[in-house]
Design brief:
heterodimer; A: about 550 residues; mainly beta; B: about 300 residues; five-stranded antiparallel sheet; four-stranded antiparallel sheet; 19 strands
Chain lengths: ~550, ~300
């Protein structure tokens, strides 16, 4: 169902009618007429050909992504839409983002503890490993559901949700229907006897099913695929324990080469936290958990995913660590572990200094799962047997990092980071024949506050590795003139590339202006090809050279 | 206990006051159904334990662009028979000069010379080896060939085989085809399942009863063979002798299946048979020979071959 012009007109008409009604009511009663809020976001790039870095010829020269949300609310009623425009989508986004449309429109109201939404809605059950309809603009992901959601709280501490609909697929909708139900119970609120308990309990359960017609001539496929999950949380004092387990029945698809094995995923996390100290340990097992509403879509753009598999790794923000070797969750199967320790050395101590010092240590590992092949391609096609939480013999990823942050005085604070990465390029990036990368990364992030309005921030980054593209260095100098202006210069240098002709610089200049809710950013320079990830979900960013303008605004 | 009671009270409250949510629960759970598929191939046709994926079938057929009567020669031989390679060489010379002769080599079980021993450990006898030679006078004395008949009427020794073949090929009365044979094969590699369809059309009236047999014949089998002309070994044993045209199996049985009798011109018969190729067969070296014969006189009325199953 492509959203055609008539649909756009209908959606706009709806908003205008709502506004007109509000206006009429305003004239009549001069009281609550409701509110309209919105925002606008535009990213546009002008592309130069740059054969040295592999920046291709772009026929249009200029490309642009833009969207605007308009939301009307009055009391417990809300309606809204989002207009999106891609002329054409900037490099790195799927070309199916093309033209204009209103791929998001909804209306909802709440009455008597019942909340009803018709149209598009975002939703998440538990931690998302069974259902997460979400939008992540940076990745080009929007798997919003178009249908109906009913949410209610019949009792204090009890929330029930039911959903049904189809998922967005660019300016179209996927072929599958997604149905789901979730119950969330806060026991301490539900049961009076536990209201004052120092131990807080909560648990939940979900069931999600998708329907897609079987039109495959090779296999007899399940048209209805069910997944269920259970979750629980226990908090007592400084300790907390979280866990969620998801089971998915046979879901043969292009992602898993049409095997009929059931999938499962479990994530358990234990945390201890008190003032100045936080410790978290998490462990995850994932096996055959691709869950899309179109079994024939295995797009690298993460189309039509019903679920979301969180990554058990730290999401780095510094350029080299974040975009050269970030980890992407492997729904096919992984066993992952992560430990986080944050400790703040008290201020006014010898070690802590005048303002205190924060030390954060993170260690994350991801391995393949332990499996035994069944060699049943021509019979039951279960593919393999899995040893639950069994660790395989191939390490996908390892990340040990330490971050020390300290404010030295009112004008200077610094953050020093060391990262060691083990990175399996064959698995994570799908680059057959590439070696495992072992990289050491060091970052110094220095902030000098010259006075109340002027500040300079500097990043010095180094990545050394004998594999892949070799060593990199990055320098960032960012000057801020509060509250409006920011100017930043960045250069990345692949000085250790084994091919001397590839020892290139990637200079990039950015000027930003902010006033109230408006922000304009102009950039020019080279952008290195890399990978952009959010929460273990990634997008390949191609190399480019040129101007970039970004505008955001809200009202 | 108190906690249990409270849970019961809460449940009652839900049931009494919130039937809408329970209805919703039932509705959504009903919608959230699941199809458990135990057999991903259940929609596919099944033969024995093997399912056929029509997308993966390999098809082949004989060449029917011109209808000629072809000649079947069955060579009865044995791995310990030192004179047998002479027969094979004589027949090879014939085959080199015509496409109208189809050769099948049969290890004659009636003769001890076809039985394996320490020096000839590879047994090339098939299930039909004994059936056929036992029907022939002095079937244990090898080598010999059967030309155009599956009984004594076609018997020829090494020295006469070439002349007898040429005589028949040059006989216009014999050469006039009585039946047209169309062979269509499909092979499903995953199950090693071979399907043979033989379509027979009478080109002129024929009184006798006719039957059809399909042979699975394998080329390129390497097995020790005694050869008196082989001088490089004192025992005259050629260890890497290549056995071509070796009969592996007759389908659907040794004497095939009767199609009918008293055929009128234009009358058609068909026969379909399936066979799971054993693992020891090298399918890429196998060819299929189909024979139309008179079940009474055992004269071969038509024969043709599909030389490659995998094309």
């Amino acid at each position: 169902m492509t959203l055609e012009l008539t649909n756009i007109k209908k959606a706009l008409s709806l908003l205008f009618v709502l506004a007109a009604v509000s206006s009429t009511q305003a004239q009549e009663k001069k009281k609550d007429v409701g509110e309209i809020h919105g925002n606008f976001d535009l990213v546009s790039q002008y592309y130069n050909v740059d054969t040295l870095i592999g920046a291709p010829l772009v026929d249009e020269k200029i490309r642009m992504n833009a969207f605007s949300n308009l939301i009307y609310t009055k009391g417990k009623f809300s309606a809204g839409l989002r207009f999106e425009a891609y002329h054409n989508a900037v490099l790195g986004f799927n070309d199916q983002y093309r033209g204009n449309g209103i791929p998001f429109r909804y209306a909802s109201y709440s009455v008597d503890k019942l909340d009803i939404t018709i149209g598009h809605f975002y939703e998440q059950f538990g931690n998302g490993q069974i259902l997460r309809a979400y939008e992540e603009r940076g990745l080009g992901i929007d798997n919003v559901i178009d249908g109906i959601r009913v949410k209610g709280s019949p009792l204090k501490g009890l929330v029930l949700k039911g959903i049904i609909g189809e998922q967005r697929n660019y300016f179209d909708e996927g072929p599958g229907i997604v149905r789901g139900f979730d119950v969330d119970v806060q026991l301490n609120s539900l049961l009076k006897s536990l209201e004052t308990s120092k131990t807080r309990f909560s648990f939940g359960a979900s069931a999600v099913s998708k329907y897609q017609q079987d039109n495959n001539s090779t296999y007899t496929l399940p048209e209805n695929v069910l997944a269920y999950s259970v979750r629980g949380r226990l908090i007592r004092g400084d300790f907390s324990l979280d866990g969620e387990y998801t089971y998915k029945y046979n879901d043969p698809s292009l992602d898993n080469n049409f095997i009929f094995k059931d999938g499962q995923s479990a994530l358990v996390s234990a945390a201890y936290s008190r003032k100045g100290l936080g410790i978290t340990f998490s462990v995850k097992h994932t096996d055959n958990m691709f869950f899309r509403s179109d079994r024939n879509n295995n797009s690298v753009f993460n189309d039509l995913f019903i679920n979301y598999m969180p990554a058990l790794t730290r999401q780095h923000t510094y350029n080299l660590a974040a975009t050269l070797y970030p980890y992407a969750t492997q729904p096919r199967g992984e066993v992952a572990f992560q430990t986080d320790v944050i400790y703040k050395i008290k201020r006014k101590t010898a070690l802590g200094g005048k303002y205190g010092t924060t030390i954060a240590v993170n260690y994350a590992l991801a391995y393949n799962i332990d499996t035994v092949s069944l060699n049943d391609r021509n019979s039951s096609r279960l593919g393999y047997e899995t040893n639950f939480f069994g660790v395989g013999d191939r390490q996908y990823f390892g990340d040990f990092n330490v971050e020390v942050a300290r404010k030295f005085n009112k004008k200077f604070k610094a953050k020093f980071t060391y990262i060691y990465l083990h990175y399996d390029m064959e698995i994570i990036q799908g680059l057959g024949g590439k070696p495992n990368v072992h990289a050491n990364i060091g970052v110094a992030d220095l902030l000098f506050k010259l006075n109340k309005k002027h500040a300079i921030r500097t990043e010095l980054q180094s990545l050394t590795t004998p594999q892949d593209q070799g060593n990199w260095a990055t320098v960032v100098v960012e000057y801020t003139y509060s509250p409006h202006w920011t100017v930043a210069v960045m250069d990345q240098w692949n000085y250790g590339n084994s091919d001397p002709t590839d020892r290139l610089h990637y200079p990039y200049l950015t000027v930003g202006y902010v006033k109230n809710a408006n922000r304009i950013m102009l950039s020019y320079g080279r952008q290195r090809a890399g990978i952009f990830c959010v929460g273990g979900v990634c997008r390949v960013v191609p190399a480019s050279n040129g101007f970039n303008i970004a505008i955001t605004s809200s009202f | 206990m108190a906690l249990t009671l409270q849970l019961l009270v809460v449940s009652k409250l839900i049931i009494m006051r919130n039937t809408i949510f329970l209805s919703l629960l039932v509705l959504v759970l009903g919608l959230s159904s699941c199809d458990k598929v135990d057999d991903p191939y259940e929609h596919l046709p099944k033969v024995g334990d093997c399912r056929i994926d029509s997308n993966a079938l390999i098809f082949s057929s004989n060449d029917t662009t011109s209808i000629v009567r072809k000649l079947l020669v069955e060579e009865y031989t044995g791995i310990k028979c030192g004179n047998c390679p002479d027969m094979a060489r004589a027949l090879k010379d014939v085959l080199d000069n015509t496409d109208d002769v189809i050769l099948v080599a049969i290890q004659a079980s009636c003769s001890q010379l076809s039985h394996p021993d320490d020096k000839h450990p590879i047994d090339l006898r098939g299930p039909e080896s004994d059936v056929y030679c036992s029907e022939i006078s002095n079937g244990d004395v090898i080598p010999f060939s059967l030309i155009n008949y599956k009984d004594d009427a076609g018997k020829a020794a090494t020295g006469e085989v070439a002349n007898k073949i040429n005589d028949l090929l040059n006989d216009n009365a014999w050469s006039d085809p009585i039946f047209k044979l169309t062979m269509e094969l499909s092979y499903y590699p995953d199950c090693r399942l071979l399907s043979i369809s033989n379509e027979v059309e009478a080109l002129k009236a024929y009184n006798g009863e006719i039957g059809v047999i399909s042979y699975v014949v394998e080329n390129g089998l390497v097995a020790p063979q005694t050869d008196y002309k082989y001088r490089e070994d004192p025992d005259r044993l050629k260890k890497d002798y290549v056995h071509d045209h070796t009969l592996r199996k007759a389908l659907p049985s040794s004497w095939g299946v009767a199609l009918g009798s008293g055929s009128e011109a234009g009358e058609r018969y068909s026969n379909f048979t399936q066979f799971e190729m054993p693992a020891e067969y090298n399918v890429s070296n196998c060819e299929i020979v189909s024979i139309i014969y008179d079940t009474d006189t055992r004269e071969i009325l038509q024969v043709d071959v599909v030389k490659s199953i995998l094309d």
